[in-house]
Structures are given as structure tokens and as C-alpha cells.
Amino acid sequence: MLQTMRSSAKFVFWILAVAFIGGFLLFQTSGLIGNTPVTPTTAVATVNGKDILYTDWQRRSQQLVQQEQQQSGKSLTQDETRRIENQAFDEMVAEILLEQQYKKRGILVSDDELRDYARFAPPPWVRNAPDLQTDGRFDPAKYQRLLTSAQARQSGLLVALEQYFRSEVPKEKLFEQVTSGLYITDADLWRSWQDANDSASISFVGFHPRPTKADSNVADSDLRAYYNAHKTEFDRPGRASLSVLHIPRVITAADSAAVRNKIAQLRAEVVGGAKFEDVAKRESSDTASAVQGGDLGKGPASRFVPEFEKAANALKPGEISEPVKTQFGYHLIKLDSRKGDTLSLRHILLRFQPSDSSATRIDREADQLAKLVAGADQPRKFDDAAKTLGLKPFQVIAFENLPAQYEGRMVPSTSAWAFGGAKVGEASDLFDGDDGYYVARLDTLQEGGKTYDAVKSGVLARVAADRAVERSVPEALAFAQAARASSLEAAAAAAKLPVIQTGMVSRAGAAQKFGSLREAVGAAFVAPLNEVGRPIRQNDGVYVTRTDARKPSDKAAFDAQKKDLRTRRLQQLRQQWLQMYLDDLRKNATLSDHRKDLNAQLRRQAAT
Length: 608
Description:
This protein has four domains: 3-179 and 592-607, no CATH class; 199-236 and 453-551, no CATH class; 239-250 and 356-446, Chitinase A, domain 3, CATH 3.10.50; 253-351, Chitinase A, domain 3 (Roll). The protein has 23 helices and 19 strands. The longest helix is centred in the last third of the chain and has 34 residues, at 452-485. The protein starts with a helix and ends with a helix. 53% of the residues lie in helices and 18% in strands. Strand 14 and strand 15 form a beta hairpin. The protein has a four-stranded antiparallel beta sheet, sandwiched between helices. It has a four-stranded antiparallel beta sheet with strand order 11-6-15-14. The chain has a four-stranded antiparallel beta sheet with strand order 7-10-9-8, sandwiched between helices. By secondary structure, it is an alpha+beta fold. Helix 2 (54-72) packs across helix 3 (78-105) and helix 15 runs antiparallel to helix 16 (379-389).
């Protein structure tokens, strides 16, 4: 008994040990001490006067990277590593802000409280442990026996529980304080029900004028005033344009046939008596599902690409498909169960791979590309390498903290590289992706953030659009008067404007026709029937509406579900309040973030 828990404890220990040792060796050998920009006391950020050390941030990031690599069974791209580094940073900032709130509010946790939580409120990772289940449900008696056993101490479970609850209990106390005043009246609940269940049929005419040159003639002082009044709306990520060279891993017909023959052999093995799960663990290229015996979870088949969806829908429970070809390779699909549109599926994936001779040729060409251009700071070398190798560059736009994309596919690592201290005109290292090798050149770089200079063009566009909408208000007023005197359709025909009809829809359905769930939709749902309303001005235009029909919500159905609705609504509100509270803590904190500067310094140092 408890073998799973013991194995998990050892697994976590070795991940942490490897990550710590790796981080320590990296720190000792990469020049981060001595005459370098980073020392053991260098702060990567300061939060309300409290430092986050660069070495602590790197250590936590490396631990998370190690865990994700263990789970996925593959190396991570720079984009994936950057996402994890941002996650680690945000967690550390949040921890400092929460600790400061605990101190401010006098929130403490006694040892007796910790023991009670550990005994009677085990965390999810304990409740889900297979050895603590009876008939598929958590067994409290087994858990109590585990707590008093020597195994609980030897495996580190008691230490892990204490660390978990020392972090979570004060957080729960703080959140209880923050949300203690939440209450939902019957009237509020009824309004929410109406918002979701009222339906109406609306006809409307929209005025969406384009800004003119005169609209864009705005004094700098007016732009700054508008920016200062709407700062939070202009926080945007950095933007980079890159030229990219790609050496694809070309898959020949012979390569594809070899993969199909291999997966046909695997199917014969399974049909001959081998367990699908065991073959998936041994052979599947989808490492994330392979460790679960190929399990893809439960859900509609529509979550997959069309070829996979069609094959999965054709299966009966327990049946295994013939080889299915998709853009990813060849699949074997097994249907475990079907309930309505919900399918429980497993699969084995064999990806397309070039032959050994093709792979050797591609690797040789990639090596040549790396020698010609990788890391060069002269833009012309990139162009010369493209001509020498007969490669055609393509352009991508990358946004900070998001992977770059080209024609629907990821361009790995290039975005993280561009925003990691690269200079305009510089070429990247050679990046290895699933579909080939990439080298990028940084052509332009716009830093993100909220500074007026960084977003001035966006402020001007917004002000010009607002002016254009304001200009259309008199036109909309005249149109509404004409529509009341005749009809909405007659006035629209005279003005050569289309009348859009929603049909019977909810507010969300109406929003799809209007283009947003804003003032015009709300007004139309309460307006008198068959009357042309006053023009409604929004940021995106001016609307003249007529409500043609309305079906109110079912009050009896509401009363029957009111108790459950209140519970769900309170849970939603609690989560919203907590997120708003945490966002406000972050927004109002004095935060100095030095990550970009430190990473740029380390890049420059590595280049010398």
C-alpha cells in the first residue's frame, strides 16, 4: 500500500535536487559571480521595498522547467522557457504582496490550526492519490492511518503538508476577509437570470464612420490628456518584426510509407493481444499522452482535426481504428467509451520523420546556415546566407511573451529571443523545431508598456475614432426622426443603409450581430416594442434600434433553480473579487522589474 505516494515523493525529490544542483553549477560556471552584472545579491525586481534575488528567480524557473520537461518528455523551446520564467516571476511577486497583506492584517496560523487542516482537509494531490481510494472515492480512514504511520515521516509527506498549509491557510484567511461581505439579493439573481434567458428580436441600423484627416489633427496636449485619463487601456506588449530562414525537414513518400508500415505493425500487435496502453507508452510520439497510456481524456471528437474526428466518431466502444493520417503523422485510435457526444479516447501517434539520408543532408545544411549567419550582428550576412543556400526569407510579427506564428504554424523560440536583449539587425542562433531549423533576424523592435511615447499612435487612432463617432451623432438623430415618421426600413432605404435583424436571440446572441455586448444591446432589451429608439452612442459607432418581439424569462424555472443559482453565482463572484483584489495589489505596488536589463547584460557578456 502507498507505493504510489512513495514513488511520487522520490520523483519530486529528485526533480528538486537536479534543479538545485543544475542551477548551482550554472551559477558557478556561467560567470554570474565576480566581475559580472549579476551577483548573489543582485535583485531581479523590488516589490514595495522587498527584493527578489536574480538567483532565487532563476532557481525557481529551473525547477519549473525541469518539471515540465519531465512531464512532456521533451526539451522546451525558448518561448516555453520564457513562459515558465514569467510564471515563476509572477508567483514570487504575488507571494511577497500576500505576505505583506498578512502582516498588515495580523493574519497568523498556529501549529494547532496546521494539524487540524492536515487531518481533516487534505489537499487535492493527497485526496487523488490512488492508494487512498476505496471504490473510486477518497477514503478518510486510509488517510488517517497514513498520517500516523512511519511512512508519512519517511516519505516527507508530513513536511510537504506543513509547507502546503503554511502557504495556503493564511491565503484562505485573507480571502475570507476580502469576500466576507459578499451577498446576492433575489433581485440581483433574477436580473442575472434575465440577462441569460430573456430573448428578443431586434432590427437596427449602425453608423460606423471612418476617421478623416481632420479627425486625426489633434494637439499633442489633447492626446496626452486623453492618455492620462485612459492609461490602463493602453498597456500593450512589445512588438517585433523578424525575417526568418527555415530549413524544413522534408518528408518523402517513402518516409510516409515507412511510418504507415510501422503503425500497421503496432495495430497488429494490439489486435494480437498486446495492451493498447502498454504499446502507447512504449511507441507513441505524443509524449504527453503516452505516459497515460495514450489517454486523450473525455470530450467531443470535434476538439481534434477533421481526419481524426471522423475516424473517432466511426468507432464503437473497445474498437481500434485503422491507421489514420493527419498533419501530425499516423494515429491508431481506441474508443474506450461513448456517452452522447462525449468520447473517451486513446491514441498512438507516430510522427513523420525524414529518412536517415535525408536527415543527414538537412543537418549538414543547417550547420552551414549556422556558420554563415547565426549570431551575426551585420544584417547583410543574413541576406548573403539566404542567397548562398537558396533560402527565401519570410517575415513574421512577434508579440512579447507569445510565440511567433507564420501561416498558422509556430516559429519556435524566435519571439523569446527577440525580446530577450537582441539588437535590431542581429541574427539569432540556430533554433531546432519539430518541422525543421530556423534562424531569425530582428528587423524592428517596439518596447511594450504604458509610456505615452510607446502608445502615442494608438492614442491618436482612438481619439480620431471617437471624433468620427461623435460627428455621426447628428446624422443618427436625423435618421431616427425620419424612421419614426415612416419606418426603420423606409428611412434606411432612403439613406442607403442596411437594416440588420437579429431574430430571436439572447443578449449574447444579439451581441454577435451588434459586434459587442454594450449599451445598444442593453437598451434594445428593455425598449418598448415596435418603437424606433433614440440613437445609442458607443465607442465603435452609433446605433438606432427597434425591438420587434420579446420573450421574457421563465420565472417558475428561476424559482425552482434559485438555490443552486445563488451558490454558483456566489462562487463566481468570490473568484472575481479575489482576482480583482490580487490585480489591485499588483497594480498599486511599487514594482521595479530589472529582468530585461539583466538578460540583455548577460547576453552582451556572453557575446564577448
